[in-house]
Amino acid sequence: MRGIRRQNPWMYLEDIVKEYQPEFVCIAEPLIRPPAQLPLALVKWGIFGFVGGRESAYGIRRALWAELSQLGLAVKPWAVVGDFNIVSEISERKGGRTPCLVAMSDFNSFIHSNALIDSTTMGFKYSWCNKRMGYRRMYQKIDRMLVNQRWMDVSAGWRSRILKRRHSDHCPIVGWNTKIPKPSNIPFRFKQAWVQHENLREVVERSWKEPLHDAPIRKVVKKLKRLKIVLKEWSWRVYGNTKQHLKELEGELENILKEQEQDPFNSKLHNQEVEKATEIQAVKDVEILTLRQKARVTDALEGERNSKYFHAITKIRLAKSQIVEIQDDQGNKLTQ
């Protein structure tokens, strides 16, 4: 934050804290030592951190990406926030020369190799401005908040926003967790996994052939509505809770394997192991196919079995489609 020694930046920071009430505040690259005493209005809001700067040369930054990747190996909720000093794509810069493609490639490799998601999708499009006049002015999105899948698992409604810029060439970033209730009127979706079940055709035919007395023009619509209810009930009866079903099957397989340790030459136990493993594989195939459909992944990834990847794609798509606030004509923002 430029001019952090002066009073005005602290007053702006105090306004942000009062409005958003964060659990912690961090000032990145202040180029000064932390003050001996913080303003009283800021102290009560929790942890206050000062993070020093790094070299901006992309060759040196590779060491930073490698160091951060090592930190990300721990399978825990993880967020990386700050000024990365590089854009992830050319559209994130307006004005100036074309960004360094090598540095941009290194940054994207860091993001993809750690399966990070950019949660900074609200507020201003660009987070930095060189504040020059005329054609020499340049805007970039170099500040952002990247989170991993575990972070999204524990904070599914996580959002971060780029706020307006005032006393610095960088914009502040604020993040929070939104809780949007699951709607009760979820639209009906035909699941691709149903096609593979041998009884689907029989269920559809039986429902369709049931007599229904009404005008011919309304019969088809009513039959479709009835079939939708039948398919929902049939799906729950056949597939049930997939995660719970898998857990039960894994437990049964574990018991079979333990029995084999006591009686290793029992052919009946060998057959039970094969049958149970086949049953588990069938349930997993249904789960993967359902996740692929939810993620709306194309057939180019046919055969892909990484369920975490499909979960991440689905969460990203849902995050983009959700409405978390509405702004009226007077500029007032309505949030949940």
UniProtKB/TrEMBL annotation:
Cited Gene3D superfamilies: Endonuclease/exonuclease/phosphatase (3.60.10.10)
PANTHER family noted in UniProt: BNAC02G09200D PROTEIN (PTHR33710), ENDONUCLEASE_EXONUCLEASE_PHOSPHATASE DOMAIN-CONTAINING PROTEIN (PTHR33710:SF64)
Protein name listed in UniProt: Uncharacterized protein
Organism listed in the record: Coptis chinensis
Organism lineage: Eukaryota, Viridiplantae, Streptophyta, Embryophyta, Tracheophyta
